[in-house]
Fold these 4 entries.
Entry 1:
Amino acid sequence: MDSSSLIQELEEILKLEEKRIRSSTLASGQMSLIELSRSMDSYFIGANFRNESNKDKDIYSYLDQLYRYGWTQAIRIFFDNSTLQEGVPFYKTNSSFSDWADSVIQACGRLAMAIQIVNFCKRGLAEPVRKEGNDYYIKISPARIRGVESLEREEFNWMTDFFYNTFQKDSYKILKQVIPNISAVMKDKVYVWKDDFMGYDSTPEIDEYFLQVALLKAQKFIGNDSFPGDAKFGDIEFNHLKAAIVALISFSIKHMSFCFKLIEKTPKIRIRNIINNFQTIDYVAESLSLALEIEKEKALKILDLFILDNGNINTHCEDINGAPAPFIRIAKNMIMYSTVGFNSGNPFLFMLKELKKKYPSDWDKAQNQREDVFRKELYQLFPSDHYIKLDRPIIIKTSGKVVSDIDGFIFDKRTGTLGLFQLKWQEPYANSIRERESRKKNFIRKSNSWIEAVLEWTKDKSPNDLAKAFGVGVSELKGLKKIVLFVIGRNSAHFTGNEVPDERVAWGLWPHILRIFSEINLNDKMFFENPILWLYESLKSDSPTLKKIDVKNTEELIFGKYKLIIKLDEWV
């Protein structure tokens, strides 16, 4: 059987496995979603408190992956029109419900991993080689560059830690001092309701505490800096959306913390029965309106950007391990907070997808504002007076025809080194192979086109010609000795595949650049002598494409009664 036939067969098997999972549904899709949410939230709350030994690390890592991958698939499979009815069933969970939900999420996690492998095959990143019974042997296609995306994720992790240590540590210390008082008040304000459930009363002090906690949390999310604060989408400023995320996170964290206090006070209460927080859309909008001091109509528009429902489920759940929804519409006029969506996930990523879909023309306008922000942040790394920096893009023409533009221009009058920058700000793509391939093709194609255009445009021009073309005084560039080119990505800059980055250019990820600058020491002679050339050489020598990445040679994935055996090398 050839590879295309094997792919088709695997796709049919995946459909059957999904059908098998769906057939296990509880009384309704609505009730299934409630139990699935209880399991998902309970699992990740528990994950924050476990004390795992080294021998448990692999097991927990695998389970974490199953739940992350399985969550959006489980929602997609069980979401149905029962969520359009009035009201929500009010009941306490039991072991059969919880066992069902846990098993479904894990089964969906294995299904999602299998879908990912089949997507690899369809994109030419892998190839099914043969089949033996229910076992399918798959080889990962050779790639000159592999796994660089994981290294770029580590740069974002570094940036989060750096931001905490540089800007937030003192704020967390201050908040830590008030925890005993807040905790005591919360314990007094929470109570058992109807034997198995929870009620609580908040205070202004409690609300303010969780608002500050949420602010610090939101500041570290990818997407927090997506647009200037005054960028408008309809009548909503991006600053309003950032403030809304802080307020909504504070509501979610507060509810979760009250859950802990009730269990501490009354250990017989089960977290699964109280972690779900159902509210009417009007109530949450009213709370948001008060928190942000805006009209309720605007609060409703903002809230709509955070809700998963029948109209957008494919947008958010068709990709593997996408950003979990902050809210799930569970009834006609009711939504359910997702603890995972607000705490383990990133509400910015969900909201940005909705924003792009609902306000396409405003989105395009706001994207143009990003370049100015990116350029200013780049220039802040070169603050001295001996730099010439242009605060505008430079259009380059050949024979009167526009061939490209240059986003950033930094000239060091001391050294005669000129840095020309292409600044790329693409949306994050999480684990979506489809979105990754789209970002990759766009990034590489446009960057390579830019490189060729700029090199061709500059090669025969004298410093005087360049000065005139750049719109600076001829005397300003008279000391020009060297031109170096940079392609800088805000959220990604390197991709697995056979396309090797053009060596005539320094390729960099924005957090990577920030890390390099943070590690400067007195022994970095080149930095003090020629900072632009230092950055150019540092990005090239510290490129993720040069680093060894440990990848398992063989992996096995079991889903249903089938097994995928995946190997990096050729099967013999």
Note: The chain has a mean pLDDT of 94.
Entry 2:
Amino acid sequence: MRVTEDSIVLVPRWSSERLPEFLRDLLKLINYQVQHMYFVLKPSVVSVNLRGVRRLVTIPPSAIIIDESILTSTEGNEITDLALKYGIKIFKLSEDSWVEVKNSLTTSEICVMGHGKISELVQELNLKSSHNTCINEASTCLVIDEGANIHLEEYKRLLNYKHVAILTGLRNIGLRDVEGIISSLWRHHPLLYDLNIWNVKVRIKVADVNNIKEIKLLSKPLVFLDANVLVMEVSYNNSVLFTSSLPFKTLLIKALFYAC
């Protein structure tokens, strides 16, 4: 995508405990005009102004770009102040650049089913949401959280929707207690980049998806606990599936920005 001159690039520290607070303040600052906020998918070289000098820098996956079209000079300065407050790198493009991005939080509303860690994040970030009533609207992104209490067969019919799901919230799905080390072959995937979750030993309960052919056919495994899959992506719509309620808040936040 062509990103125009004077757009702002932010490189959040996704492993920071203050990340939710920063994102909430950023969304409020741009008046929730999320259709002009982009999530970087691949490393990209762009031309920026650094202390009045034009330089080339590489911006990493999962950087955030705010389109200059919605920024007044005052708002640009306020975003700079916000970045300084939270210790986040910020650049302003000195010329138009081609960057592989996707819109962040493009849906008009997040439809929440159940209540757990993801729905709590939706509330914490002050994102527009409703419970259950919007499930058939094409402009929504579904959150299927713990306690969603929907049948596995019903969930299979929702796989084509953009969604983030914790599969332990489904009814009549098998659960197993597993223990092991968290690992991935895809650490530079935009969903996983800059996360500090690797080589951690955990014992958790996971949903057994080994015999669910629809999920196995449509999804790509991203994160493992030894031989057990913990995180998957449905590539054609960027949906993110968790087989367990993982204790990593920043990964859940990234899933919302990436999928919705």
Note: DSSP finds six helices and 20 strands in the chain.
Entry 3:
Amino acid sequence: MALTGASGTGRTCLLLALTGRMRLTEGEARVGGLRLRKKASAVRRTAALAHVPGVDDLEPSLTVGEHLRERVLLQRRYGIAPLAALKAALRSPRQRRADARRLHDEALAAAGLDLAALPKGSRTAVRDLERLERLRLCVALALIGRPRLLAVDDADLKLSAPLREEMWALLASVAAGGVTVLAVCGEAPGELPGGVPLAVVGTGRATAARTAEDTPAPGGATTGTTDENEKETADALAETGRA
């Protein structure tokens, strides 16, 4: 599913709400048969976020390998049921290392990120990655938890037309593997590679008619709804961080 619309139209808020990271104030929704209002925590366990600014930002100074190892450790500690965590803790160090290797190898393959093609392999710093490579790493990190729903924000941000095609091919491949993909984008393609079904939901709203409150004040200052929108965005990110 693609959530389209201009920046500031509520795309990210809708994405966070549908993954159980933001409380609903109105309406009803079900994700995987779970009611969001009553089962938000259960939805969070089945949904993973990728490429959401202010929520799961990559650390530029860390390497690709360090990000992968960190996510595997977090998944082992917080992302599985207590009984499964106990069983994992009883495994030998060699078995745990093999499990970790298998987890991130599967995630890298699904995200199409080839470590051998990077300048320094797994020791490549995030700041040295191209934009699409960063997106692939974000997707790989999210897939380590083996989610049923993958939510990707700003999927096509600052990507050229050829790179957008690669990005949609990546998400179509993930969807073909059985994971439902929810992608926020500026514009959705007419169809996805491989005949993968695509539903498009627009979050746009009319902006042509501007009120006096929206009109920039002298000196570049703005009043009214601009400040309210910025406050709503900040509140949403803070609530997501707490979740």
Note: The first helix runs from residue 11 to 18.
Entry 4:
Amino acid sequence: MLSSIGDKIKALRLQKNLSQSELCGNFMSRVVLSRIENGKALPSLEQLAYLAEKLEVPVSYFFSDSTGEKYILFEKNSSLLKDLFLAKDYYEIIKWSEENHNAFCEVEDSNKYYYLGMSYFYSNIFDKALKILKKYINAFTKSSTDFKRENIEKFSDALNSLFKIMLKNKNYEKGIHYLELARKYLYQFNALSLPVSFAIHNNLAYTYLKTCQFQKIVIILENFINYNNDIISLKIMPDIYTSLNIAYYNLGNYEKALYYIKKAILLFEFQGDHLEAGKCYLNYINTLRHSSKFKEAFEVLEKAKNDYKDDAELYHKFKIQEMILYFNIGMYEKVIELSESINTSLLSMRGKKELAFILGHIKYLNKEFEEAYRFLKKCEKYFAEEIFYNDLSVIYEDLYAITGDVNYREKVLAVKNKSGRKNVIIK
């Protein structure tokens, strides 16, 4: 290890045609550099950082073929762990910590858990990331106020990563716990303008939407907007407005829902993001439909179809919206006619399931029970997972009528008046 670092320093110096004096400058003596290059001494942390900068390499370069002796350089701080992390050398951090467990434990800076835990996270080793990041959270909450203020961004990033791990297992309750903890400290240390704060609030909105806690979305995001009115980034505002639109139309406050989706469209267009603005028109049409403003919904739909006719996937989403509109006003023949022009390969998973539901219910009404059963079974599980209870109650009623299976009758009663997310059926 001694000679390895010294050899690399010397090789780079010669490659750049630098004398020892030129490399040392006023920072260190030639005698010290000579001892390092000859493998008789190790550089200090400050010397290594200086040499790395002068030789134009990351600090991690000196450890690329490291041995277990690397812990000598780490002493009792995490500055080199930080350098390796900033260089995205996650493998080296993991390798060193596993080969030098005792040395890692001796590092006094609690941020060592952040660097190691996030290295596991970025390496997709989620079980170990979970274990180490939880240690970081525990250490942070017990630390001094100064440490918390200085490292609030790392803390929030760690919690956001823990949320993502929970999301993989659909453990929304635990995921919300981590996000709310981050939000608490972001407010406490007046750090809401940090980029990670925007991610925390967007992820909270997503998770509360998934769990039908719409009022919480409204409270959290409107407070966030009011608190950050002067500093909030225009780039993230359309996403916040879209989340508020979805929350409000699920709560039945269509006036507010329309207000926010119009603001989202306006901002996306202002930023030149025509495609994202187009996606917002889907929410716009949804809101008009649920508020029974069908005439206006058809007008907006026709404009959107014309504006986005060159984007095949988005255009097909508008065609599904058109079918849903006609479905809700009972024009089933028009729905069947439109369905014949649908290319299902261009539909999202949700679009395919909505198509199956619409066709399945129409087939049931037309007493084509075998076809109805086939279509309805295609969307039953998906609608249950997405908590589309209004639609799901119709599916169960149709399946009960077709099969006579009392299990479907029990399922109807279980979801009939249950609070869920609005989708196809208007109630």
Note: The CA atoms of residues 330 and 362 lie 10 Å apart.
